[in-house]
Amino acid sequence: MARKTESSFDELFSDNNIGSEDISTLRISEIEPNKNQPRKSFNNETLKQLADSIREHGVLQPLIVRSIASGDYMIIAGERRWRAAKMAGLSEIPVLIRDDLSEEQAMQIAMIENLQRENLNPIEEALGYKELIDKFGMTQDKLAQVLGKARSSVANSLGLLSLPNGVQELLRNGSLSAGHCKALKKVKDAALMTELAHKAAEGELSVRQVEVIAKREASRLEEEKDKKELKPRISYYTEIEVSLSELLGTKVRVAEGKNGNVLQIDFADKEQLEGIMKYFN
């Protein structure tokens, strides 16, 4: 078994750069991927490019693995290199065996390694954040610190998981941009959101157009809410308006408000106001 290796985080997680000391060699068949890998899909074109590099130069940066109960080894970091090495036809691959890591440490490293890569799709990235928070009790602040990201970036990413499944799928497969999704999140109606998302994915709506529709829909909902909150008008108020209007010879209104009601009496000039005041005196 290899000795404990002193390596920097960046060195451990580079794709195919110069490696470090204490490297062992394992058969590729002895290694299996991590089931907690947040990346669920791999780009075949970039894997092929990495395989071409490995075919020419070999695997220059070892995988990080740990032994498991079956006698084989599970990947902690470097699944892309493992897949590309298989594609390149290699039978063996260099590894760093890190049995000194606890299960929790291994899972954290595996997940953070993947989250630091820029080619995860936004939904995979958000799911990875959620899993770190759920499994290890990380706060958004701590997660942002570990990943070197702004807390708002982590929060916005997690917010994507509240989108309807159909919208998430469009984002996952690259049909929809993150900008569109940020605008869509302001649409409260799930059916309308999904409809707009498909139109945006088909190129029919820009981010700005989605923002305008979302704002208009929010205003409509606010108006409906205000209407529902209005109390039914008391018929006595209408009767008072009619009676006073006839008595005073001017327009009278009873205005209802949330914090109280107001009696409004129109008058044209000082003389008419004085005449109105005589009735009240």
Textual characterization of the structure:
The protein is an alpha/beta fold. Among the domains are: 9-108, Conserved hypothetical protein from pyrococcus furiosus pfu- 392566-001, ParB domain; 235-280, no CATH class. The protein is built from 13 helices and seven strands. It has helices at 9-12, 44-57, 79-87, 103-115, 122-136, 140-147, 151-159, 165-172, 178-184, 190-201, 207-229, 235-248, 270-280, and strands at residues 24-27, 31-32, 63-67, 73-77, 92-97, 252-257, 260-265. The chain has a five-stranded mixed sheet with strand order 1-5-3-4-2. Strands 6-7 form a two-stranded antiparallel sheet. Strand 3 and strand 4 (73-77) form a beta hairpin. Helix 2 (44-57) crosses helix 3 (79-87), helix 5 (122-136) packs across helix 7 (151-159) and helix 6 (140-147) packs across helix 7 (151-159). The radius of gyration is 33 Å and the shape is elongated. Mean pLDDT is 82; it is low at 1-19.
